[in-house]
Amino acid sequence: MLGQIQQQNQELAYERDLLSTLMENFPDSILLQDLQSRFVRVRRSKLERAFASSLARHRAAQTANGALQLPDPLTNVDKLLSI
């Protein structure tokens, strides 16, 4: 019984390593969900990561310069209602 559990644990570790290798080397985004539609693993594409880091640097620079201005929510609602 104990040998069977150890074998199953080794097989699971092997499958987990395969999945990790795939997720690390696949160029596209990968989203894995469980049966309740919760994301259990997410791998963002290189393009998404580059865009996110570029956007974060841009926002940090704006904040450091005091230039970051958030939109007025009431103005945006008025614009949407006028469409």
- Spatially, the strands of the biggest sheet line up as 1-2
Report the oligomer: single chain
Task: Kindly report the average pLDDT value.
Answer: 77
How many domains in all? 1
- Order of SSEs: HEEHH
**Major sheet characteristics:** 2 strands, antiparallel
Q: What percent strand?
A: 5-15%
Count of helical regions: 3
Could you say which structural class the secondary elements and strand pairing correspond to?
A: mainly alpha
- Report helical residue fraction: 55-70%
Distance linking N and C termini: 69 Å
Low-confidence stretches: none
Shape: elongated
Give the number of DSSP strands. 2
Specify Rg, calculated over alpha carbons: 22 Å
Explain this structure to me?
It contains three helices and two strands. It has 83 residues and is mainly α. The chain has one domain. The protein has a two-stranded antiparallel sheet with strand order 1-2. Strand 1 and strand 2 form a beta hairpin. The model has no long low-confidence stretch (mean pLDDT 77).
